[in-house]
Amino acid sequence: MQIVDSVHCTWTSHSQMLRLFPFIKIPTHFHCRFAASATMSTLSPDIAQPPLQVAKRLEKFKTTIFTQMSQLAIKHGAINLGQGFPNFDGPEFVKAAAIQAINDGKNQYARGYGVPDLNFAVAERFKKDTGLSVDPEKEVTVTSGCTEAIAATMLGLINPGDEVILFAPFYDSYEATLSMAGAKVKGITLRPPEFALPLDELKSAISKNTRAILLNTPHNPTGKMFTREELDVIASLCIENDVLVFSDEVYDKLSFEMDHISIASLPGMYERTVTMNSLGKTFSLTGWKIGWAIAPPHLTWGVRQAHSYLTFATSTPMQYAAATALRAPESYFEELKKDYKVKKGILVEGLQEAGFKVFPSSGTYFVIVDHTPFGQKDDVAFCEYLIKEVGVVAIPTSVFYLNPEEGKNLVRFTFCKDEDTLRAAVQRMKEKLIRLLKG
Fold first, then answer.
1. Residue span of the signal peptide, if any (predicted)?
2. Nearest CA to 89 among 310, 283, 263?
3. Which pLDDT band, with edges at 50, 70 and 90, does 436 fall under?
4. Domain final position from 303, 327, 351
5. CATH no. for residue 399?
6. CATH of residue 152
7. What pLDDT score was predicted for residue 126?
């Protein structure tokens, strides 16, 4: 076998190449620029590896905690109540609509800001939910999941040095995306047991440099739903100080203790709000990555500018299916909520019986607990213990805070699993953790 003379490589030692590849005829002038590929490093561990490289704005962000915990779960055969994706499939009528769209040839690039049918379906659903009429062509932008809607909103509307207020704990992509945008992040901590909004802290945090407040209700990871009174205060402060609101509402259909309120529906707020949502949580189709942002035209412009250079367009057949999903009868959403209430009850009761202090969860499919009765030094140590010794996965919440110390006593469980899985996880925890409490 002969390697062509034109290939180039960083190794200039002919003898070294012969040692690595004795079965290949290598010309003496052979040079290569494989830049220490994974294959080469495996074959020759003595070759120096270049340092990992990442832009300074992302240096502090490691492999996501979800990836780390999921890898441990696989290694130890643990039941995964950590990452928030269902272990059951989405509804047949939505999947059938996707197959139909594929068979109908709707497989090329979609229009950048969404296929018209989905834009109209999003506008229709938003009017049913909030009473607000929006222009589907000028005020709805379809994105690749809500995470991309968040990124497009921040990158399209935030300038370097702008202040953005977050409520901690928060979904981990918020801080990373704001870092990419060059924003100055201010955190306001929601504290157990109720995770109520500290209104005085919010008032003092807003300054002339505050560009936006990033809101998430129902709230991941706590399950908190912001009350009408809290939203009224946020709205009045934003109007008074000319501040935008970016509102992540992906769990709007999973509100158990109170009705969900979109802050855009409050007086004077639509013109300064970007409302972000997605298909995945409501229809158990997280892998489809269909999301959207709703905003007045002057804000939509920035969102679309960023979106066009992030993903440009989103999966075409799935957009047509998403339109079908959003037009589901109200009975679908009622049954969804009823089903999740049962799942929540199984998990909460089991966690309490296992010895956890369980905090109230009014929405989402997450529950926060205090793990300190079990004697581990912090949330990461407890979650590792839970996986290795108990066989259940939870997520340490310290990663959701600007100051990790604030979350070291808390871990998050999800109940977006089938009932048998939840019961099996609960049984494992009751059997092993109760013994641990008894010493």
1. none
2. 283
3. confident
4. 327
5. 3.90.1150.10
6. 3.40.640.10
7. 98
Edge-to-edge strand list for the sheet holding 357-358: 357-358, 366-370, 410-414, 395-396
Distance of CA 40 to the CA centre of its chain: 35
Residue range(s) defining the domain that contains residue 170 = 92-327
Query: Are the beta carbons of 146 and 248 closer than 8 angstroms?
Result: yes
Q: Which two tokens stand for residue 17?
A: 């190449």
Same domain, 309 and 365: no
How many residues would you count in the chain? 439
- The DSSP secondary-structure symbol of 323 reads H
Alpha carbons within 13 angstroms on the beta-carbon side of residue 146 total 23
C-alpha to C-alpha distance for 24 and 4, rounded to whole angstroms = 11
Distance CA 240, CA 210 (A): 12
Across residues 115-120, what is the average pLDDT?
A: 98
Region 130-157: mean pLDDT is 98
Matching residue, tokens 């804000």:
299
pLDDT surpasses 60 at 127: yes
**To the nearest whole percent, how much of the chain has pLDDT over 90?**
80
